[in-house]
């Protein structure tokens, strides 16, 4: 069958639940049923502290076929996933499904466990490195399920993703299970992605390298959700938190894109008192923030909030009084961690509060402007940030689809050509974010506005900005690169890409060779 975007979706997929094709960004909104959770109550005097990961696995009755979860706030510095899976493998357990909010190169040992049958299923929002490569080549028994950040929270809360045991990397944990991410040698800041796991998993295990006396303060994840506590030597390396570049680009092309983007935001009419904003951690995205900052200061504008994974640059804007508060689901660098620890108005938000479409209102719904990236964008404004041009998995939605759907103005910023390939194509390799939620594409060669945004087209048509159709941008790119050859992929489905509402927006097929 085809979904509403014309993407071919099999009527059934081995290892996947009922297939529900994507019908539109807001087609599934309405009354939603959340699942109930069965817990074992604690009596006074009961100790939650367990001496080892092996012992806690026994306490949780680990067995073949279970689903275990992890969060990614330590990013490429995380040790917890690897140490838990090593112990599971040593115990001879097989057929485990790993639900981890993101996978990084440090999680390369997962490849071994995929090949020997310890791990047969994966849920994740983003993946890069050796695990992504192995899955792209068809080495995992079942297709991985790729969520958005808000979609993962939705799946957990609805019961679509049932978690037997959640392992929470806990920079600080007290002796009764109260957790925070701002103290200890492995401090990583907010723990927003771990909150749905803690609330809805059947068993919750805090893994910590900083066990403190009761009570910990502040508390991000409460004792009422935690079954067991295990102290280890180290849960990770906080230096691995830093995500690629978190500095403003000095590249003239990137700066040109950023300056034009800020002009689009200004002309849109959204840059006014109470302005709300989110951008990524890449160099061009942060340059957009720089130009927006200069405009806000020039106009004397104070914004209501900035949101997302927070970087040090956004913290600087907050400290200069340009935003009243920050909503933070994860800290991208050490300056953000310090700010979250010290400023009451630098606030935690859970993944559900951030982007879950099936709750009583997500933060993304109140965003004025969101700055997005793209691996590819097609002439229908569908965006791919899941696979490379060769079909290999190299990312995932994360908050991309959530913020595009919620914000009043979603802007994709990218160079028109990357790696000698055009970014604008007839049909993206994989749809991550549907074009109906993408408003503007800004490249160094020109700006394309989604035809559904006639209001923006009208506002920009008499400016000196190089506004053109997306088809014209595609022609410009191809005049420089030629028309790229279409890649051929195997029939085997290696990943199911779910939209934030749980419907299938696309599938990823095995790369050949």
UniProtKB/TrEMBL annotation:
Gene3D superfamilies: Glutaconate Coenzyme A-transferase. The keyword Ribosomal protein does not apply. Its EC number is 2.8.3.10, 4.1.3.6. It is found in: Cytoplasm. Keywords: Cytoplasm, Lyase, Transferase. InterPro entries: Citrate_lyase_asu (IPR006472), NagB/RpiA_transferase-like (IPR037171). It catalyses: citrate + acetyl-CoA = (3S)-citryl-CoA + acetate; citrate = oxaloacetate + acetate. One of its GO terms (cellular component) is cytoplasm. GO terms for biological process: acetyl-CoA metabolic process. One of its GO terms (molecular function) is citrate (pro-3S)-lyase activity. It comes from the Bacteria. Its main location: cytoplasm. NCBIfam families: citF (TIGR01584). This is Citrate lyase alpha chain. It comes from Garciella nitratireducens DSM 15102.
């Amino acid at each position: 069958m085809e979904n509403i975007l014309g993407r071919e979706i099999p009527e059934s997929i081995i290892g996947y639940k009922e297939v529900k094709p994507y019908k539109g960004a807001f087609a599934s909104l309405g009354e939603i049923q959340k699942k109930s959770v069965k817990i074992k109550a604690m009596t006074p005097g009961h100790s939650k502290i367990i001496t080892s990961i092996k012992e806690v696995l026994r306490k949780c009755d680990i067995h073949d076929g279970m689903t275990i979860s992890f969060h990614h706030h330590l990013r490429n510095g995380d040790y917890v996933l690897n140490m838990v899976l090593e112990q599971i493998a040593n115990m001879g357990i097989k057929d485990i499904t790993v639900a981890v909010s993101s996978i990084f190169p440090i999680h390369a040992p997962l490849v071994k466990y995929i090949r020997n049958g310890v791990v047969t299923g994966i849920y994740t929002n983003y993946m890069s490195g050796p695990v992504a490569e192995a899955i792209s080549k068809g080495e995992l028994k079942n297709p991985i399920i790729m969520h958005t950040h808000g979609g993962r929270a939705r799946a957990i809360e609805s019961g679509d993703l049932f978690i037997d045991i959640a392992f929470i990397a806990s920079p600080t944990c007290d002796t009764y299970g109260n957790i925070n991410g701002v103290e200890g040698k492995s401090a990583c800041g907010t723990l927003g992605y771990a909150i749905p796991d803690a609330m809805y998993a059947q068993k919750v295990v805090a893994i910590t390298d900083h066990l403190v006396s009761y009570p910990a303060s502040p508390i991000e994840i409460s004792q009422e959700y935690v079954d067991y506590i295990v102290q280890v030597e180290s849960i990770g390396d906080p230096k691995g938190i830093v995500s690629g570049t978190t500095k403003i680009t000095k590249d003239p092309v990137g700066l040109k894109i950023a300056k034009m983007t800020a002009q689009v935001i200004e002309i849109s009419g959204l840059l006014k008192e109470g302005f709300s904003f989110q951008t990524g951690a890449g160099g061009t995205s942060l340059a957009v923030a720089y130009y927006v900052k200069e405009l806000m200061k020039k106009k004397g504008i104070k914004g209501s909030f900035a949101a997302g994974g927070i970087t040090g640059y956004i913290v600087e804007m907050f400290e200069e009084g340009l935003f009243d508060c920050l909503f933070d689901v994860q800290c991208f660098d050490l300056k953000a961690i310090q700010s979250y620890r010290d400023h009451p108005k630098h606030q935690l938000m859970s993944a559900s509060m951030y982007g879950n479409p099936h709750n009583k209102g997500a933060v993304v719904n109140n965003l004025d402007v969101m700055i997005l990236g793209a691996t590819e964008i097609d002439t229908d404004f569908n965006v791919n940030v899941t696979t490379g041009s060769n079909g290999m998995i190299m990312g995932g939605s994360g908050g991309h689809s959530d913020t595009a759907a919620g914000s009043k103005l979603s802007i994709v910023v990218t160079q028109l050509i990357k790696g000698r390939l055009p970014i604008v194509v007839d049909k993206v390799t994989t749809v991550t974010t549907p074009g109906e939620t993408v408003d503007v594409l800004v490249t160094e060669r020109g700006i394309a506005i989604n035809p559904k945004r006639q209001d923006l087209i009208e506002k920009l048509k008499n400016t000196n900005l190089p506004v053109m159709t997306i088809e014209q941008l595609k022609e410009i790119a191809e005049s420089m690169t030629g028309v790229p050859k279409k890649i051929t992929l195997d029939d085997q489905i290696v990943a199911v890409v779910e939209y934030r509402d749980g419907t299938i927006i696309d599938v990823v097929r095995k790369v050949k060779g």
